[in-house]
Each structure stands twice: as C-alpha cells, then as structure tokens.
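Same chain as my last thread, 603 residues:
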Amino acid sequence: MIQWKKIILSTIAAIGIACFAGGTADAASVKIDEKTFPDVCVRTAVAQYDKNKDGILSDQERDKVTGIDFDSALAQHYTEGHCVDFEGMQNFTDINSIYLDLRYKAKNNSYKYWNYRADNLTQCFPNAQRISIYWYGNQTISLKGTAVNARKISLYALQNGKLDYSLYAPNAQNVEICGKFTDTKKSYGQYFPDASEVILSETNIGGNNTLAGFKGLQTLYLSGKAITSLNFSPLKNNPIYSLSVERAACRSMDLSPLKTCKLKVLSLKDCGVNSLNFQPLATSPLHKLYVINCPLKKIDVSPLKNTLTELWLGTLQNTYFWEEINHKQTKPKYQLLDLSKMKKLKRVYACGVASLKTVKLKDTKTKQGIRSLLELHLYGTGIRTLDATAAKNLKRLFVGDRIRKLTVDKCKKLKEIGVINLGSKQAATIKSSSVQHIQYQGKTLKNLSFSKCPKLYTLSIKCTKVGTVNLRSNKRLHYMTLNSKKTGKVVYPKVSTKGWHDCCDLVETNYYKNLDEFKNDPDAKGVYKEYVGYTLEYPTKILDISAWTSLNKTVKRCMFGYGDFDHEKCATKKIIINKKLRKADKKWIKKFAKKWHVKVVEK
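reply #2:
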C-alpha cells in the first residue's frame, strides 16, 4: 500500500490538466472515489482540483478542465505492465484535447515506456477533438472504438513500435500517422472516411485495398521503405488535388486510377519506380510535377503538355550553387528531357540530375519552340551544349557543370544566366543583348570576358584560377564579386557610380523583391547579397583601372576598400592607371601604392 501511495503522489505532478480552480459542490458533483475513478493514478490526479478538499469535484471545478497532457514525468515510479485506465474522465465534459507521451526516464536514467487501456480510451474522452500519441521502442499500441467528435488524429511511432488501429473517427479531417500497422490488409480509409488530409509516413501500407474507404480525400502523403506496392484504384472517386510519395520501394506505379481525380500536384521522391506513364493524367488539371531521384531510364512529360506549368526533377539553382555536393542525384538514368511539346510549362528545376545530357526545346516536326518557358535550372547536369534559341520568352537560365557552348543570343527577354564549367580551361562564351545578371563558376580559366553582354549589371565569379578578367566593355556593371584564389589581371570598366551603396540593400529592394519569378527561388538573394560595388575575395596581381580619368569617394571605397588593400601583405604587384587621371587621384593612388609596395603604371 505504501508503494502504491508513492506511485500516486508521483503521478499527481505528471498529469497536466489545464484548468482553473474554483467552485463548490452541487447536485451534479462527482465523488473522487474508486468507483468513479478505478485507476489510482487518475484518481489521485483529479484530486488536486478538489480545492476545498471535500472529496467532491463540482461542476465549476470540472468545467475548467479542457485538456490533458501525459508526458514523460508520468511514470517516474511506474510499475511495468500497468496500463493507465482513464475511466471516470468522461465526467470532464469540456476536455477537447488529449496528449500522451509514452516514454519516461527510470531511476537509472534509462528510458522505459508506459501504456494505457485502449478499449475505453475514447469513451473516457467522448468530446476530444484532437488525439495525439507518441510511442517509442518496440511496443504495440492500440486505438479502438469510436471517436465521433475527433477532428485531428496524430500518432507517432518514434522507433520500431507498431499500431493496432480500428478507431472509427467519421468526422476526422486531418490524420497523421507515423509508423507501421500490425495489419497490412485492412482498408484504413473506412476508419476516417471524411478525412481531407492524410499523412502516412514510415508506413507499410498502400498496396491492395489498404487505401479504400476514403470519400473526400484531398491531400495524401505516403512515405516509407516498407511500401512494396501501391494501388491507387480505391482513390479514383476522391477529389484528390495533391499526392506525394517518398522512399517507396515499389518498382512500378500505375497512375491510371488517378485520372478521375482532380489532381493538381504529384510528387514522387526517392522512390524505386523505374518507369512512369503520365498519359492517363493527360486530361487532369495537373500543373506541378515532382519526380526527384527515382531510377527512371527515360522520362516523358509530353502527355501533360496542356496543363503542366512547373516541373521539378532536381533543385533550385541557388541551392545547388552553394551545396552542389549534397544535391547530386545518383538514381536517375535518363539522358534526354524533351520539353518541345509543352504549351504551358513555365519553370523547370533539374539541378543535380547528373545523367541528363540533352534538353530539347524545339519540335523537329513543327519547328516550333517552347514559348511558355521562363526559367530553366540545369546545374549539376552532364549538358555540354545548349541552344536555347527556341525558348523565346526565357528569363532565367542556369546550366552546368560541363557546359562549353551556350546559345542564347536570340532570347531577347533573358535577364539572368548562370554557368558552371568545370571541365574546360576555355570559358563558355555568353552573347546576349538583354542579360543583366550572370553567375559564372569554373576551375582554371585563361581568360574570362563578358564583352558581348552590354547590359550586364551584376556579376558573380567563382573560379580556382583565372588568367585575365576583362570587364572594360561592361559599362553598366555596378556589382561584382570575384572569388578566385589566383587571378592574374582584372580590367575594370568605367561606369556611372549613381546608385552605388556600401550595403546590399540596393539589389535586394530594387532587384530581388520586384521580380515575381524570384518568389519561386527564395534563396536567390543569397547569390546577390554580396554585391557591394566591386569586391575581390582574393587579391589580383594586376589591377587595371585605366578606363577611369577621375575617382570619386564611392569608387575609391568600392574598388580599393576590399580584398586588395586591406592588409599589409598585399599580393597586388601592379596598378595600371590612365595617364590622364586627375592629379589628385594619381597622388592618392601613388601614396598608398608606395606603402604597399605596388607598382603604378600609366597607360
């Protein structure tokens, strides 16, 4: 008996019941006795709300109780094998939320697990709208009975536990279950038929008729290596607009049952499927498709030509630009991506698809190009040559890692280009009368010039070694970062300094925020945030500023305030200036040049 009292006292602090004290006994009062609350833990817990210590819970006292929260503190002295029985809690009619965390720390600091009586749980909380249970280890938990008022069910197996599920929740709208089921043959849709959003992660169902019974399902997410087969037939009469499948081990996937749904978004990531047929979805309103890191030998999205607006085969340009190692896909086998027949496709994100070697933008029969395309992200691919001429309305293009030839001169609306060339010392030539923003990444380059890009405004260069970077003809260039450990020579252009600031706000406000297409690439500003005048991350041996005949304070700060001249061990050996440079500026340059042992040459 003494031992049980210890358990009771420890449980008082463990069961959190949200309420406010108050009230006195009345005609509808509830006695705190073994008959009403058979479980000693529960009986002792509710006793703390008997503020006048008369052994009775009044209406006022019970009406303030809106939810219970059993956490790890519940079982500090828990006796293994005991299942907490919540009988009597139905007297708290305002409880709308229950939360159970079935793990506790024993005296030796090891974790153990408690359980509850399952057959009457929902009867004890008939008005609960939200049921949340976290369980651990290898134990199996059960949910049975009926929960008419439940609107949201959240069940999480955080290790290897399983779920014996037969709880009927006819009005549940949101169901999230993380873990495997004990029975892989049941039709689980019958238990929450009106659910609009269902998330089944780390699950082992999906095949046969396990998804049968849903009536109004709109969003379905399935994930888990234990998914060995998928049968979407039971879903054909549901108004599903979003379907996601991740890490499913199944080799095939029949999408034909989904043709009667209202599918708008389809996402397949890290699945085992080696072939996909999108023809059954030709008449569906599908506008966004994700097929990422699946072992497909070929991919044909042409059946979706009349609806698809966004295609994700990989990542965004900026995600890959900074973290290319982590975003390489090893599973895809397809080498061709044919976009020539697409009529509404606006954006393609395929960074990291290493197998991709060719992107087709023009129909060889009709000679028509893809006019709807606005963005094409192809970093981390095997593409060596790309002719984007057919994409007349293209605004943003990113291609690499082996690109050698790029044709964009007829893309008159092109504003931004990104090039990664890691396989050649010869820089890929960019010719565009409209492009304003360029990212360029390479290894060892002899010369780098953007003389055929007259409207170039922002430039980011990242190379191992560059012989000469000639920017003399880029008279609109306002922002430039050069990240090259070894640079032989940099030739600066003469540009208007109007709008130059010693901060990155100019780009973020006037460029990033005002471009609608950047809303789909929220990390893009990370590429441009470093544009502060002209920034050299590493010193260059020769600095040519001969295009300037005068240097104002802005020029001096932006050109000479970074990299080259902010430390005594300056690696710059020579500065080339215009012989007509204003005398005061000559004097200023020669003064610090003498201090840093830099040779000044007039041109």
